[in-house]
Write a structure and sequence with these properties.
This protein is mainly alpha-helical. Helices cover 71% and strands 0% of the residues. It holds the Pfam family DUF4810. InterPro entries: UCP020555_TPR-like (IPR014508).
Length: 122
């Protein structure tokens, strides 16, 4: 009977130690910093007239500065969306710059960025 109690005590002690170590673990770092990216995309796709391209560009550029200041990376699509906003106001040089930034950070986006650029030239 005593050996069963010792086994249970050891098990309880081991579980308590595991729980204690788990509580000490640090929070995982996110891979990207999103800031207001998702609401901007949603607003754009909804065709929200209150938040026109100029306002969204200004807010996204400001968010980009915050992301860079913290040493983080914007999420996939951030530069592409910003480029699309610049294209919508006719600023093709900034559009191209943002599409190239998207391709540099996320090489898998190259086919789509090239597709968008080829359609722009037509």
């Amino acid at each position: 009977m005593k050996s069963t109690m010792q086994k249970r005590g050891g098990l309880v002690l081991m579980l308590a130690a595991c729980a204690g170590l788990g509580a000490c673990a640090s929070q995982p770092q996110t891979m990207y910093q999103w800031e207001g990216y998702q609401p901007h995309v949603y607003s754009y796709l909804r065709g929200d007239q209150k938040s026109g391209p100029d306002k969204q560009i200004a807010e996204m550029e400001e968010d980009l500065q915050k992301i860079r200041a913290k040493g983080n990376t914007p999420p996939p699509g951030y530069y592409a969306h910003l480029g699309m906003l610049y294209a919508s106001i006719g600023n093709n040089s900034m559009m191209l710059q943002n599409f190239q930034a998207e391709q540099k950070l996320f090489p898998e986006s190259a086919p789509y960025m090239n597709y968008l650029l080829s359609n722009l030239k037509k």
